[in-house]
Every structure is written in structure tokens, then in C-alpha cells.
Amino acid sequence: xxxxxxxxxxxxxxxxxxxxxxxxxxxxxxxxxxxxxxxxxxxxxxxxxxxxxxxxxxxxxxxxxxxxxxxxxxxxxxxxxxxxxxxxxxxxxxxxxxxxxxxxxxxxxxxxxx
Amino acid sequence: xxxxxxxxxxxxxxxxxxxxxxxxxxxxxxxxxxxxxxxxxxxxxxxxxxxxxxxxxxxxxxxxxxxxxxxxxxxxxxxxxxxxxxxxxxxxxxxxxxxxxxxxxxxxxxxxx
Lengths: 114, 113
Fold this sequence. Notes:
The structure holds two protein chains of two kinds. Chain A has strands spanning about 5, 10-15, 20, 25, 30-40, 45-50, 55-60, 65-70, 75-80, 85-95, 105, 110-114. By secondary structure, chain A is mostly beta strands. In chain A, the strands form three sheets. In chain A, strands 2, 5, 6, 10, 11 and 12 form a six-stranded mixed β-sheet that branches. In chain A, strands 3-9-8-7 form a four-stranded antiparallel β-sheet, with no helix packed on it. The model of chain A has no long low-confidence stretch (mean pLDDT about 90). Chain B starts with a strand and ends with a strand. By secondary structure, chain B is an all-beta fold. Chain B contains no helices and eleven strands. The interface between A and B is medium-sized, with 23 and 25 residues.
């Protein structure tokens, strides 16, 4: 079965620190990859997506992610976090089908201290 | 934000009662999805629809049914609610274009006592 692993359940950083959140998936075929963010009490918002092409994808709010096919990974990065980045982050994968069924990781709670 | 409205936003009910959650979209998107979000589990797909009257099961479909009689509405029904179905339910939509990601509604917080 498809699975998505997010290694860090809770990350605590100070403002201006660099961030990297890990995401690995288990499916060996063509995949589309996503990072979503959920601010407290809100719905999920798309941060960035990868379908094909350049494996380094840039998203909103200064986030980027790198797809490394050989490692089945799609890690999220940001060089300098802000207090407003405090949120829960979800990695998601779909297996390249037209039905777009998403498989989500369990999420990583990021807390940024001012 | 995508035009997705979930109703109700909050509901408290008792075990054994039927519950219906509604997802309404104004984007004319083909695909609609129902997820549940629980601590430590992320989001899990309950059911999805790929057109009017076309639905299929997701990974946690037991105890749930869905209906889609119009493009804009996707209903999730708990025929006889149980406490294990206490959760936050999110609806999502996506278009026919393969490169369109899913967009989510604001969620329904359902508590079953």
C-alpha cells in the first residue's frame, strides 16, 4: 500500500533559523508530490507541487522542495523561518492517476518562537 | 480561495443518529473528495467522486456513504454515527486538468457523544 512518511512530528525553531522537513514515500512508479500547510483553525492550503521537470520546486512564502527520485524523497525547506510560519505541514503524494487520489503523511507541527 | 462551502461547520450529535455533511462547490470541477483529519493520522480519504453519480471508496470508507446528484454538491452520510467518527471532515475539489492540485474547504468539526 502507498505510504507517506514524515519523520518529524514536532519541530521547534527560533525565528531566522533554517528549516528542513523530511518526506518519503513508498510508491515506485510515477508520482505527483505536494506540500500543504494548515494554519491553526484553518483549512489546508497548497504550498507547492511537483509534477515533472526541475526537481527543485519553489512555492509560496519562500518555501521550496527538492524531489530526489532515487531516495523517494520530497523534503521541504526554507532558509529563514518566521513566527508566522507556525503551522502544521503535510506532505502528500498521488500516483500519477487521473483520479488524483492523495495519500497524506501524518503531518509535522512547526512552532517558531519569536 | 477555491469556491468550496462545507455545511455545517460544527455539529454535535449522539451515537446512533444519522448525520449528513454537505460540500458545495462553485468551480464546476469534476473531482470531489471527502477526507477525515485525526491527530497523528494526517488526512485520510473516505470517498471520492469523479462525476455525477460516479463515486468510489477511499481508504477509510466503512460506516460512510456518499452521493453526488449534481456537479456542485457532494454529500457525506454517516448512517448511524459512532464515537469513532468524531473528527474534522474536509471536502476537496480538483479539475479535469491533470496538473490541477486539490483545494480544500474549511472543514466540518463533528463530535459524536
